[in-house]
Amino acid sequence: MSGITSFIRGFISILQGMWITLQNLVGRRKITLLYPYQRPDISPRWRGIFYLPYNDEAGRINCVGCTLCAQACPTGVITMTKMGAGKHASVNAFTMDLGRCMFCNLCIEACPFDAIHMSTRFELASLDRGVSLLTIDKLARGGADAVERTKRTIEAALEQEAAAKAAAAAAKAQAAASAQPTEGSGA
Amino acid sequence: MTAMQPAVGASTSSDMTINLGPQHPSTHGVLRLMVALDGEYVKSCRPVIGYLHRGLERMMAARPYRQSVPFTDRLDYCASLNSNLAISQAIERIGGMAVPERAQYLRVMLCEMNRIASHLIFFGTYAADIGATTAFLYAFRERERLLDLLEAYTGARLTYNWIRPGGVASDMPEGYAQAVCAFLDGFLKELDAYDTLLTKNPIFRVRTEGVGIISPEKAIAHGASGPVLRGSGVNIDLRRTEPYDAYPRMQFDVPVRTEGDCLARYLVRVEEMRQSARIIRQCLREMPEGEHWGKQPKVFRPAAGEAYSRTESPRGELSIYLVSDGTANPVRVRVRGPSFVHLSMLHELVRGVKVADMIAILGSLDTVLGEVDR
User: Does residue A17 lie within any of the structural domains?
Assistant: First the structure.
């Protein structure tokens, strides 16, 4: 007797399960994607591969080489060498080793100049380790061209600053020179 | 080699020692179980851990306080926001930081969303352990939608690093509350259907009912926590008994079952998902306007001392202990993880059961090896 009731109970449970799977089979759109051909909809906040935005107005990337991001990084992903000085500074080398990166967002939050961003690109798989070592040419939006233009902008600004400084110094010297005789004559 | 000998029970010539794992789909990670078998019966079982050991505690102690948060993502990777919360709370306590009220609600919401995602992994993998593939696929489909939501908020799908000392790293994107509510509406309906697939199924019931019974005394003696403890009839939930963040203002039930078997632990977790959905709804409804991040000191050097934070992660009590000597780095970081504690009960639970029941018991403890090995 108990054999028959348990058989019936089991049969009902199978029907219940089949009903649920049938509903899912017929009533639902599939959510899988044929990945390389169909691309997923990625959130704009996605923390993917980094880039250094290029500032068209200023003609340079925003980075000033302050190393705050490198200090904020828990795994030491970022290395950079500074170029220029004072107000006119940038980097001529900026390397990120994504093989160690945790994509934790701390470098981006540390940056006071909005110089480093994360894109929605996520495909890092490669047969070559060198691919995950991002140099500044790969990081800067606009590539090597942007880096070259940044360099020129900084150099021009530095030259201009030096010229202005020299002119100011010359003007000061001239003023001092022209002031001296009058002082002398006055005495 | 002594390491190859099973630890408990003397083996005779008729016993067979078998290594289950470290690459076995039902060990949920890189866990190796050295089991001595007498036919189909388990005579003794010794878990071998450490395959995933990275020295996270030491790594966290070697860095400034606030840089240790991304490492906690790698503890319990199924529920990393809950680990973020544990370390953030510890750092806030040691540094005397305040958390704005809105951030508290955001934290609770994120943690509960992560709790659902984590319990869905349990639901799916446990069904797969027992042999039901359909529930596994359905659970991961639901989880996928939840991860999309977490991705829209935090930008990551697994290692979020979004709950930080002093608050949450960002506020919600626009229209997020509606998206979450829409998900919850569908999810609760689906959950009932998925639950039917397992709980109404006589095979699943036979495999889990009365299997792996943990008495309340034993659970307490071993230091069990979370659903394992509540499945044994002990009503302790840190969100209730030692509430933190916005939990004191939340209305929710703590599911408790007295059977103490695998089915009880399963049912507690399924009910917890429903309660988590309730908490998320309350958070979205009652969330005040304001800052998502409190004022942060530029250089963080807490005074010498110690701090201990206890949180209820999906697996149980996740606590972090910090010792400061007044410098920028902690002297000691200690993680008290629930998975490690629960895994230490395994050898007692599986003695004398069949191999298939051992898998059911291990699955019902819901251990995550990232946190066992640290």
Answer: no
3-state helix, strand, coil in chain B (%, to 5): 50, 15, 35
Give the closest of B70, B141, B201 to A74, CB-based: B70
CA-based R_g, chain B, Å: 21
**In one letter, which amino acid is B85?**
L
Instruction: Domains for chain B: give ranges and CATH numbers.
Output: 2-48 (no CATH), 97-300+353-373 (1.10.645.10)
| Chain A contact for B169 (CB, 8 A cutoff) | yes
Question: What percentage of chain A carries pLDDT values higher than 70?
Answer: 95
Interface of A with B in 134-173 (CB under 8 A): none
Domain membership of residue A135 as a residue range: 50-165
Q: What is the rounded CA–CA span in Å between residue A163 and residue A168?
A: 8
Res B42 pLDDT > 80: yes
Taking an 8 Å cut-off on Cβ atoms, the answer to whether A103 and B68 are in contact is no
The reply to whether residue B159 touches residue A104, judged by beta carbons under 8 angstroms, is yes
Which of B67, B151, B202 shows the shortest C-beta gap to A74? B67
Beta bridge mates, B37: B16, B42
Query: What band does B13 get if pLDDT is binned at 50, 70 and 90?
Result: low
Write the CATH number for A141.
Answer: 3.30.70.3270
Please tell me the total count of domains within chain A: 1
Give the confidence band of B374 by pLDDT, cuts at 50, 70, 90: confident
- CB distance from A16 to chain B under 8 Å? yes
Query: How far, in Å, are B16, B104, B178, B277, B278 from residue B271 at the CA level?
Result: 40, 24, 23, 10, 11
Select the residue of B144, B155, B197 nearest A17 (Cβ to Cβ).
Answer: B197
Of A16, A43, A106, the CB nearest to B155: A43
Reading the block at residue A51, the tokens are 């880039």
Is A176 within the bounds of a domain? no
Residue A9 lies in a domain: no
Contact A10 B196 (CB under 8 A): no
Question: Residue A170: inside a domain, yes or no?
Answer: no
Nearest chain A residue (CA) to B198: A17
